[in-house]
Amino acid sequence: MRCGWSGAHEHARCHQIWTHCRAATLAAGATTPYGLIEDAALVVQGDTLAWVGARADLPANLRQRCTAEHDAGGALVTPGLIDCHTHLVYGGNRAHEFELRLQGASYEEIAQSGGGIVSTVQATRAASAGELQAASGQRLQRLMGEGVTTIEIKSGYGLSLEHERKCLQVARSLGATHAVDVRTTFLGAHAVPPEFAGQTDAYVDAVLQMLPTLHAEGLVDAVDGFCERIAFSPAQIERVFAAAKGLGLPVKLHAEQLSDSGGAQLAARFDALSCDHLEWLSDAGAQAMAQAGTVAVLLPGAFYFLRETKLPPIALLRQHGVPMAISTDSNPGSSPCTSLLLMLNMACTLFRLTPEEALAGVTRHAAKALGLRDRGQLLAGLRADFVLWNVQHPAELAYALGANPHSQTIFQGQVL
């Protein structure tokens, strides 16, 4: 019998077993590096992992209940990858700004002259929902081709109720039409649109009017903001966070990318899921994140693409026990990247993470950065989202620059 996408009742009874593999469970507190299990077996019931361990330890009665057996061919198995910070839905591109930066213009100078986020806002507003869906779908397919099974997609390129709604609806539609779990984040406080030039507080008022409407329409899983001197002040972001808290929505923050604004401390006061970028994070900010359980999301693609020189304080994050996630930050201006595997390599080469830290950063810690407790590790009771790779050791996923050893993705227990 074969479990298919249709026939949910039959699917719930179906037991599948995967053998002839090595499993990097990435389990918290594992006694082996990567939580690696040699000669492993994974049993799937419906869309859930029912058992994970050494094949020799598999209970006989559980083996007998399996109705489908898969030979993994010696593959390495990891949890499905999670891209926990993207701006995937947008119109146009900013290749011209790439040229300007190579000629010496800074990110801030480009933004202040009408480029940057505002230029993408214009292109996104001009694009139809169908055009955004087609372009974003291509980007999503490339990420899925590298084993991504969960992705966060932010708004923030509409900056009006009509266009923020359009972008969030496209994100929801991508989740409905692709075998991937899409989490949506409202990033209305991303930049000040042209019609509010010089009226930042008034635009924050507009954001506060958008949020409850979009939330009521089921389009918002979390709320984000850009706390920076070229964007919004801590006091303005606090207003947005207070509104999110009033709606029961979790928050996250673009923090300390270009300067230390105290954004990490602000986010921690609101028990933020994550603070992202963090090149200028202070010791006080790291301590606040640790106490709040806030994840540090590191974005090496943006660091590389903008030719930044200020490294995020990895030693400080380690010292305070702040979990570190890794993401593509896929966006047109500072990280036009659709390769999470490349981010593994960059996190190691640029930020000096270990390959194990990097892989945990796109699985276990990335799940935590999205507030998801049902994935990111290969453990009984969690979602059956996992990936087969044609490699011998987990470090190879971060090692081979530009390679894609992806073999197969299993999403909610089903082979894609």
Question: What's the structural blueprint in terms of helices and strands?
Answer:
Blueprint: H1 8-13, E1 15-24, E2 36-45, E3 48-54, H2 60-64, E4 68-79, E5 81-83, H3 95-102, H4 107-112, H5 117-126, H6 129-144, E6 148-154, H7 161-177, E7 181-189, H8 200-216, E8 222-227, H9 234-246, E9 252-255, H10 263-269, E10 274-277, H11 283-292, E11 295-298, H12 300-305, H13 314-320, E12 324-326, H14 340-349, H15 355-361, H16 364-369, E13 386-389, H17 396-399, E14 406-411, E15 414-415
Helix pairs in contact: 6-7, 8-9, 10-11, 14-15
Question: In words, what does this structure look like?
Answer:
The chain has helices at residues 8-13, 60-64, 95-102, 107-112, 117-126, 129-144, 161-177, 200-216, 234-246, 263-269, 283-292, 300-305, 314-320, 340-349, 355-361, 364-369, 396-399; strands at 15-24, 36-45, 48-54, 68-79, 81-83, 148-154, 181-189, 222-227, 252-255, 274-277, 295-298, 324-326, 386-389, 406-411, 414-415. With 416 residues, the chain is α/β, with parallel strands linked by helices. The strands form two sheets. Strands 5-6-7-8-9-10-11-12 form an eight-stranded parallel beta sheet.
